[in-house]
Structures are given as structure tokens and as C-alpha cells.
Automatic annotation (TrEMBL):
The keyword Thylakoid does not apply. GO terms for molecular function: oxidoreductase activity. Keywords: Oxidoreductase. SUPFAM superfamilies: NAD(P)-binding Rossmann-fold domains. It comes from Mycolicibacterium fortuitum (Mycobacterium fortuitum). This is Short chain dehydrogenase. InterPro entries: KR_dom, NAD(P)-bd_dom_sf, Peroxisomal_Beta-Oxidation, SDR_fam. SMART domains: PKS_KR (SM00822). Belongs to the short-chain dehydrogenases/reductases (SDR) family. The keyword Cell membrane does not apply. Residues 8-203 form the Ketoreductase domain. Its EC number is 1.1.1.-.
Length: 326
């Protein structure tokens, strides 16, 4: 893909490690100027290390690419604006944003603190909003000045929140579902400005957040693509930020070499009453007759293979036992 993104500037948040790092390296190899944003925090959002973003920039430059580091927090309104301004000051323009930043604190609901809920939602949901907002503000100013270039936003969600919300992830699942919903809203809003908005949802990808998931340490035969390598997400992101890509308003799951189009919440079976208000006994009879899906059935179907193929009952018992420890 060398040269396909030459001349385009892309801001990638959370680009110091894992998926974001792979995206930044891939985009730079394709010719893009990359703003590598990462404050270098721990998984739970605490701490900070400026060397994390700087190391990725050094790696890109060593390969002949163009990049600049930014260590601002996506949760900080002023920092979000500054990283957009940095892209324009350093490279003359900003063409795309990849909202990848996230943190994680996994605890059962009754043990999750207010701060732990707020912190995760702030990075994933507010951070996606803040950076997108300032990028769009800049792009709108360019349109008003008579410059209408190809612009793109790529958000990052997770199966936890879309397809298989996971126990202990009240904060993370809710924030990711919110990112997917925000993607659709912004795709509708921003078409008038020539801005495309899509969302990628990596699944079973190796990162700091997933290292403890069973099966993540499995090796792949030499010479074959490792389906859990975060690089599997990068080509899709590169396509979505490329000039002329027609896609907008899409939420795309990535698992190994498979890409799935998600349709979000869709209507299912329905009950109707010809006249009058439903009564509770009528609802009890009619609703329980519908083909309702148990959430543990859905979760076991989504993750059972990755966790050894346990049956539904064994899977529920395993999850409940883990919850008592969180």
C-alpha cells in the first residue's frame, strides 16, 4: 500500500501501543503524515509516560516516514483542540482522525466505583467526541473558506458493547456502544461537509487489554498471518481514511482476516393487540411465547470457541465464579 496515503495527515489517538501503534505504523508506511497521540498511561488511565508516543514517532521516522508526537489527554477539552492544531501546524492540514484511545477497569457492578465508571467513559466516549468535535470545527472552517477536501473519522468500538457485552465491563461496554451510536449520528450530520464517519470493532486482537483472555497467547505457524496480531485492523482503517473511500455510517467488526458489517439493534419478533391497553397477564402470556434469546446463550455462542468450547451452563458457571472475584 506504499504511497496510497501520501499527502494525507492522520491523527491517531492511543497510538503508543497495541492497535493504535499498528495503525500509526501502517498509515505512515502508506505515506501518511501521522500525529501519534498517547499520554502513555497505564491500562486503568493512571500515570503517564511521554516516551511511549515518542518511541512510535522515532520508529516511523527511522523508516523514512513523517510523524509527530502528542501526549495530550483526549478527555481534556483543550488538549483535544491542541492535537488538532498540532497536525495543522506541523503538516499544513488534517484529513482524518482515528479515535482509538481507551482504558479499562473491569469490576463487578457492585464493586465498581463512580470514578472507575467515569474514567473509562471519559476516555472512550467523551474522548471520541472531543477529538471529533475539534477536527470537525477545523474542517467546517475550511469549507466556509471554500476548501472542501476529503475528510474522514474512524472510531473504534468493541464487541463488548456491540455483539457480546461482557460481565465486569459495565463502563467499557456502555462507552463502546455509545461510540457506535455516535458514529451513526455523526455520519448523518457531517455528510453535508464532505466528512465520512465509520467505526471499526476489533475482536480477539492481542493488546494490553486482552492479554489475560484465554487463547491470546496461542502461537501461529511461521509464515502464516497471526489473526490476533493488531496489524489485522490497520488495512481497514487505512482504507476508511483514504481519499475517495465511499463508506460512511458503517460499523465493521474485524476478526483475523474476516470483516463483518454490523447492523446494530434491529427489530425482532413482535406482539400486537387489536384494541385497548395491554394487561399484565396478557403480556406474561404473549411475551414469554416469543423466541427470546438468553444473554448467556449469546455470550457463549460468541466466545465459547475462544474459551475452549464450554457448554452454555459451564460457561455461565465460569463467568459467575469470575465475577465473585472481581
Amino acid at each position: 500500500m506504499t504511497g496510497e496515503l501520501t499527502g494525507r495527515t492522520v491523527l491517531v489517538t492511543g497510538a503508543g501501543r497495541g492497535i493504535g501503534r499498528s495503525e500509526a505504523l501502517y498509515l505512515a508506511a502508506a505515506g501518511a503524515n501521522v500525529v501519534v497521540n498517547d499520554p502513555g498511561v497505564q491500562i486503568d488511565g493512571h500515570g503517564g509516560d511521554e516516551r511511549v508516543a515518542a518511541a512510535v514517532v522515532d520508529e516511523i521516522r527511522a523508516r523514512g516516514g513523517h510523524a509527530v508526537a502528542d501526549t495530550g489527554s483526549v478527555t481534556d477539552w483543550a488538549d483535544a483542540r491542541r492535537m488538532v492544531d498540532l497536525a495543522v501546524a506541523e503538516f499544513g492540514d488534517l484529513h482524518a482522525v482515528v479515535n482509538n484511545a481507551t482504558i479499562e477497569v473491569n469490576k463487578a457492578l457492585e464493586r465498581l466505583s463512580e470514578a472507575e465508571f467515569d474514567d473509562v467513559v471519559a476516555v472512550k466516549l467523551k474522548g471520541t467526541f472531543a477529538v471529533s468535535r475539534w477536527a470537525t470545527s477545523y474542517w467546517r472552517s475550511r469549507v466556509e473558506a471554500g476548501v472542501r477536501d476529503d475528510r474522514a473519522i474512524v472510531n473504534t468500538a468493541s464487541g463488548s458493547g456491540l455483539l457480546n457485552p461482557l460481565p465486569t465491563q459495565t463502563n467499557y461496554a456502555a462507552a463502546n456502544a455509545g461510540v457506535a451510536a455516535m458514529t451513526m449520528v455523526h455520519a448523518l450530520e457531517l455528510r453535508r461537509l464532505g466528512i465520512r464517519v465509520n467505526c471499526v470493532s476489533p475482536s480477539m486482537v492481542r493488546s494490553r487489554l486482552t492479554n489475560s483472555v484465554p487463547g491470546m497467547d496461542e502461537t501461529t505457524p511461521e509464515g502464516q498471518l497471526d489473526p490476533k496480531d493488531p496489524i489485522v485492523v490497520a488495512p481497514l482503517v487505512a482504507y476508511l481514511v483514504s481519499e475517495g473511500c465511499p463508506l460512511t455510517g458503517q460499523v465493521l467488526s474485524v476478526r483475523g482476516s474476516s470483516i463483518t458489517v454490523n447492523h446494530g439493534w434491529t427489530g425482532g419478533a413482535q406482539i400486537n393487540k387489536d384494541a385497548g391497553l395491554w394487561t399484565v397477564p396478557e403480556l406474561a402470556e404473549s411475551l414469554t411465547a416469543l423466541p427470546l434469546e438468553d444473554p448467556f446463550d449469546r455470550l457463549a455462542s460468541a466466545l465459547g470457541g475462544a474459551l475452549g468450547g464450554q457448554g452454555r451452563d459451564a460457561f455461565e458457571a465460569m463467568v459467575n465464579a469470575d465475577l465473585d472475584k472481581c
